[in-house]
Amino acid sequence: MxxxxxxxxxxxxxxxxxxxxxxxxxxxxxxxxxxxxxMKMDPxxxxxxxxxxxxxxxxxxxxxxxxxxLFPPVAQAIExxxxxxxxxxxxxxxxxxxxxxxxxxxxxxxxxSMKDDELRTxxxxxxxxxxxxxxxxxxxxxx
Length: 143
Hints:
- The protein has one domain: Alpha-D-Glucose-1,6-Bisphosphate, Chain A, domain 4.
- 30% of the residues lie in helices and 46% in strands.
- The chain has a seven-stranded antiparallel beta sheet, covered by helices on one side.
- A hairpin with a 4-residue loop joins strand 2 and strand 3.
- Helix 1 crosses helix 2.
- The chain is globular, with a radius of gyration of 15 Å.
- It starts with a strand and ends with a helix.
């Protein structure tokens, strides 16, 4: 178990636009996250979905599957069910700050194959990659 806290990252858009980005993952997930292949999103209820994809993970293809539960406009909770981070759980909150939105993430990261130091690095890279790809897509979105 590795606790990772990532506080204070921000996107220069309103929280409403952040939620439009989150909703866009249902249709444009593979475009938003180009490393994700064979991406699928299956709704499980009004605010819950199962996401799955294949991705390059350290030079190997890994199947990823996670359950996302949305609490608009405040947060989303992710439970990783398959892949190198299986068993991990994390929550990202969205805090309006002027014309920007601050993201705060805290998670309990686990891995069936990594030691704690390697896991901490992998979890941060996973979060940072998603943040960067979301930011690039936000710049392309038409409001």
